[in-house]
Write a structure and sequence with these properties.
It is a single chain. The protein is globular and about 55 Å long. Helix 1 runs parallel beside helix 2 and helix 2 packs across helix 3. The two termini are 27 Å apart. The protein is built from nine helices and eleven strands.
Length: 290
């Protein structure tokens, strides 16, 4: 019987731009991604027999092929050309679901890294990211982690200079956002503002945390339904009022986050945001999985 425990960090979008709709129905994306210390914990246990069993501390999560962790295990077996016996996957969820923070994709990526460890690290991280393309658009990034540029559907990953050390306050308001509806809204509206992705890349090269924070932007913020957009803006203002260098919505939302250079200011902002959102977290930026 072999087992391994793996962390699955949440991801944030420092920038998110949609360049257009592709012929295959997907959208061409350009995003600067960042992993943070808020993470799920996965334990993978390999025993004699066959099949995949998934368990979670959240009873409403699917435990079959609708869960990307199960899909990742099956894709790994195909790529490795071997069965993993009876595999039990236990997920301790801390990342909020439907939050724009890639919790499901990060769990899938953790399964790939964990299974690779169980078979003696046969695949490099880049190879694992390639396997992850068959699981979901965010999975390749979640395999690699750290600071990276994501293009294509989000699966084409270029590592970037690491975001300077900082504290991150994240707050998820109490509503969900439909990703397909948000893309449909974006397709039907001319976007006025776009993120300065090149400016963010230059700031990262120079180790300029403030320069990154000032240029953060997510095009989906413009096409949110009015009341939800108001709530996101309110949370961003609270973060800025409490010392954030910059604030932004991540993914298709609704989670909002701010970057802080000082731990004391981040702590004060965290305490304030907890009064507004049950799901509020004080985290730190992480480097890559290498």
């Amino acid at each position: 019987m072999a087992s391994v425990t793996v962390e699955a960090p949440a991801k944030l979008n420092l920038t998110l731009d949609v360049l257009g709709k592709r012929e295959d129905g997907y959208h061409e994306m350009k995003m600067v991604m960042q992993s943070v210390s808020l993470a799920d914990t996965l334990t993978l246990e390999q025993t004699p027999g066959e099949g995949i069993a998934l368990f979670s501390n959240l009873s409403f999560l699917p435990t079959d092929g609708r869960n990307l962790a199960v899909v990742a295990a099956r894709e790994f077996e195909k790529a490795a050309g071997c069965k993993m016996g009876h595999l039990e996957i236990r997920i301790q969820k801390r990342i909020p679901v439907c939050a724009g923070t890639a919790g499901g994709s990060s769990d899938a990526a953790a399964v790939l890294r964990g299974l690779n460890e169980l078979i003696g690290r046969r695949f490099s991280l880049v190879q694992l990211a390639g396997i992850g393309r068959g699981v979901g658009s965010d999975v390749p990034y979640c395999v690699l982690g750290g600071t990276a540029l994501a293009e294509g559907r989000g699966e084409l990953i270029t590592p970037l200079p690491q975001l300077p050390a900082c504290w991150v306050v994240m707050a998820k308001p109490g509503f969900s956002i439909s990703t397909p509806e948000l893309f449909a809204q974006f397709d039907g509206k001319k976007t006025r503002c776009r993120p300065n992705t090149e400016g963010v890349l230059t700031a990262l090269e120079g180790g300029d945390l403030g320069g990154v924070a000032r240029r953060m932007f997510n095009v989906f913020e413009e096409v949110l339904p009015f009341r939800k957009r108001e709530r996101v803006e309110e949370l961003k203002c609270l973060l800025l009022d409490h010392g954030a260098l910059g604030a932004c919505m991540t993914g298709t939302g609704p989670t909002v986050f701010g970057l802080f250079s000082e731990e004391a200011a981040a702590w004060e902002a965290y305490q304030e945001l907890k009064n507004h959102c049950r799901d509020t977290f004080l985290t730190q930026a992480l480097g890559s999985q290498n």
